[in-house]
Write a structure and sequence with these properties.
This protein is an alpha/beta fold and 296 residues long. It has 12 helices and 9 strands. The chain has 2 domains: 197 residues, Alpha-Beta Complex (Spore Coat Polysaccharide Biosynthesis Protein SpsA, Chain A), CATH 3.90.550; 78 residues, no CATH class. The strands form 2 sheets. Strands 3-2-1-4-8 form a 5-stranded mixed β-sheet. A 4-stranded mixed β-sheet has the order 5-9-6-7. Strand 1, helix 1 and strand 2 form a beta-alpha-beta unit. The chain is globular and about 55 Å long.
Length: 296
């Protein structure tokens, strides 16, 4: 760990009681940089089977409370100087924390978020593009630059940040989905001095769980979220971010995967009329739609 990174790490894991929770917890316990506590927020109706370790503290938040409430509960109870987030179907490499926190410089202060890439179920790395020097956070997260490999991302299970930062800008309590993106938009608006620090390695294995929240968001709700947060809010660069989010992120991909072609046409129309899509997002959308049509 660098001299600039505080020493006590609190890990927050929301769970619905999946079998994968034990693997997630074991990956935390195996860290070369030991953690101070592991706060598990249970949204399950039955008791959890967790490893025997005094650092693991389980709080019953649900059932039915939702992952965001469980995650917020853990962050509010955290006593460490640093919070690290992990979903119950993902796993960290043993040197995840040591590597990510080594990227935090001594002069970082309490206004940084550290992260890394991760491995998808097909073996590919996501994201492949790290934030460029001087690039603003909204542009990195929403604007497509250079095809599929040009996507930026800060996935939840890779996030490590000072506890003071989330005390200053909490995760919103009313979010059922896109909670991490919403938090980053809030940070961009409230913490201009924020620094994004990324380790240039894939250090997390992402699960591909059927029925996860990220796979069950209604497309119309996702579009409404983007309209509210990126257009109505007056976010700088919001029109471009709005269009590229619709065309290269969740809405279009979900609609094509579900073979909802009328909805696909509506998404394309809204992106062009209300937003300012980049050439890359238009090419990406065209290619994704073409592949969907060929595999009908």
């Amino acid at each position: 760990m660098s001299a600039g990174a505080p020493g006590r790490v609190s890990v927050v894991i929301p769970t619905v009681g999946r079998e994968s929770l034990s693997r997630a917890l074991e990956s935390v316990l195996a860290q070369t940089l030991p953690v101070a506590e592991i706060l598990v927020g249970s949204d399950a109706g039955a008791p959890l089977d967790v490893p025997s370790d005094p650092r693991i503290r389980v709080t019953q938040v649900g059932p039915g409370a939702g992952g965001n409430r469980c995650r917020r509960d853990g962050m509010e109870r955290a006593t460490g100087d640093v919070i690290a987030l992990l979903d119950d179907d993902d796993e960290w490499d043993a040197d995840f924390l040591a590597t990510v926190l080594a990227a935090v410089p001594a002069d970082a202060g309490p206004t940084w978020v550290a992260s890394s890439s991760g491995r998808l179920s097909d073996g590919s790395t996501y994201p492949r593009r790290l934030i460029a020097p001087g690039e603003d956070l909204v542009s990195y997260l929403f604007t497509l630059k250079g095809g599929p490999a040009g996507k930026g991302a800060l996935s939840t299970s890779t996030l490590v940040f000072p506890t003071a930062l989330v005390r200053r800008v909490p995760w919103r309590s009313d979010q059922r989905f896109h909670q991490d993106l919403t938090w980053f938009l809030d940070l961009a608006a409230s913490v201009p001095e924020l620094r994004i620090l990324q380790a240039d390695r894939a250090l997390v294995t992402f699960g591909d769980t059927v029925g996860s929240v990220s796979k069950s968001i209604r497309v119309a709700e996702s579009i409404d979220w983007a309209r509210r947060e990126l257009l109505v809010s007056g976010m700088p660069g919001g029109r471009r971010a709005f269009a590229d989010f619709l065309l290269s992120r969740y809405p279009l991909r979900a609609a094509v995967t579900a073979r909802r072609w009328r909805q696909v046409a509506d998404i394309l129309r809204v992106a062009v009329r209300r937003g300012r899509p980049t050439v890359w997002s238009l090419l990406y959308a065209g290619g994704f739609v073409a592949r969907g049509l060929l595999h009908r």
